[in-house]
Amino acid sequence: MPVITFSSPKGGAGKTTAACILGSMLAEQGATVTIIDADPNQFVQEWSQLPGLPPTLRIVGGATEETIMDKIDEAASTAAFVIVDLEGVASLMVSHAISMSDLVVIPVQGSQFDASQAARQIGLIKRTERRGGRNIPYTVLVTRTNPAIMPNTLKHILLSFEERAIPVLKTRLCDREAYRAMFSYGGTLQGLAGKGISNMAVAINNAAEFAAEIVQRLRDDRAQTKQVA
Ligand SMILES: Nc1ncnc2c1ncn2[C@@H]1O[C@H](COP(=O)(O)OP(=O)(O)OP(=O)(O)O)[C@@H](O)[C@H]1O
Ligand SMILES: [Mg+2]
Known about the structure:
- The chain is an alpha/beta fold.
- Helix content is about 45%, strand content about 15%.
- Strand 6 (about 140-145), helix 6 (about 150-165) and strand 7 form a beta-alpha-beta unit.
- It binds adenosine-5'-triphosphate (ATP) and magnesium ion.
């Protein structure tokens, strides 16, 4: 089933956080989800060892350049959604995962450095497309935004994406304590209820909107591919 890869050469862009928010939200909604932890730091694996993950969510660790393609194939044959969390580097493992993706999500925070790194990542996606002779859909996800204000720098970055026809998800992931707390307490956002985390309801809503937009994007892409065929 669809393979959604989180990738950016920028360390700390928000890949692992967004991948786990998406995976746990879809799993809480009843879908079977496998997250492949393809970062040697194995932070997703660490999270999976804490209590509270739903039975619909499976975490597969230990991916290497040699095994990543088999791990994605195996996961795609069993789970409704496969999510791949990649290391913040350009490597053969990153190219392999991108080549098998139905959607590559590139997290970007509101800085020009992140925007430039996103452009580099799109270059890598385009080269992978050329090698494989297959269209690889991608989108930018703006993350760690301030829910109260829209800084001019971010406006400027969004405008430059628009001018270059780079797709950007309408939903932005805000900077929320809940998105950090998941990794301290373990489990999903829903499981954090009653732990005194601020703004839980808005964090869950924001995450649900993000998951819904990703699912809609996958549906739109599939419909478009069918039309072309
Ligand atoms: N939406 C968010 N709200 C609050 N904190 C966030 C959010 N997104 C990321 N963070 C924090 O920012 C830091 C970097 O995030 P994360 O580890 O997800 O990035 P990454 O792109 O996976 O990094 P790496 O390149 O090292 O794998 C972490 O401390 C994480 O808790
Ligand atoms: Mg990471």
